[in-house]
């Protein structure tokens, strides 16, 4: 069984991003970029399936600039077998990503596509769902646990206040949530081995997809600054403030 794992190159989650002065977007100049954290979880899950003998090949796909090859290398160092880099400059919206992935699925015929639940740069939470819809496949989103059973998969999903278990027929799309697993660090020998694994280079045109954005960002702003707190001298004063100022009691 082949598993396809889309991996996006995003600003590292530890970096505090700044909005550009003209509010047209975020300033990405000289920022550390990494694999989207939910995609690391997706790669880890695919590698575990391979280790259990359930997956035979893992293909990592990234759609983005030439440097997205580094993101694919990280996936290869974690245990993916080969990569596909679909080179584009500029922002690619989830629908275009899903269309490109659909064409790759048609070529590669994976039984399972594991995407992250959301990319931490655009916070769209759309690509996996759109891909499942375009393919006419079932989907298990926000996955907390995966069990493969012949031609179907049992997926435990994180929902508000609890878990929901669904069964989907394969082929299917699954999107990862935070608690599905803890991704491994690539070992040095595996980083060296990854350098020899193949990465095919493509363009959106190779898949008949026009990646021109359909949305125009009108404005990006920083979150409102929080007001400073106050120190109270007694419990009575605290209760008074909660009752009469905050209005929460
Ligand atoms: P989004 O819908 O943008 O929040 O992204 C959800 C997931 O789709 C990500 O976690 C990735 O697995 C995948 N994805 C989105 N954009 C890309 C991209 N440019 N290249 C590869 N995978 C992507």
Portion of residues in beta strands equals 25-35%
Which small compounds were modeled alongside the protein?
Answer: adenosine monophosphate
Task: Give a short account of the largest sheet.
Answer: 9 strands, mixed
Mean pLDDT over the residues: 96
Q: How many whole angstroms does the radius of gyration measure?
A: 21 Å
| General shape | globular
Low-pLDDT stretches:
none
For the terminal residues, how far apart are their CA atoms?
Answer: 57 Å
Total helical segments: 6
- SSE pattern: EEEHEHEHEHEEEEHEH
Q: Count the beta strands.
A: 11
Strand order of the largest sheet: 9-8-7-10-6-1-4-5-11
What is the CATH C-level name?
Alpha Beta
CATH architectural category: 3-Layer(aba) Sandwich
- How many distinct domains? 1
CATH topology: Rossmann fold
Q: Helical percent range?
A: 25-40%
Overview of the structural elements:
- The protein is an alpha/beta fold.
- The protein has a single domain (2-246), classed as Rossmann fold.
- It has helices at 37-51, 68-78, 94-108, 127-135, 188-194, 235-246; strands at residues 2-6, 9-11, 33-35, 57-64, 82-87, 112-116, 138-149, 152-159, 162-169, 172-176, 199-202.
- Helix 2 packs across helix 5 and helix 3 (94-108) packs across helix 4 (127-135).
- The termini are far apart.
- The model has no long low-confidence stretch (mean pLDDT 96).
- Adenosine monophosphate binds at residues 6-8, 36, 38-39, 61-64, 92, 94, 97, 115-116, 118-119, 122, 124-128.
- Adenosine monophosphate binds next to helix 1, strand 4, helix 3, strand 6 and helix 4.
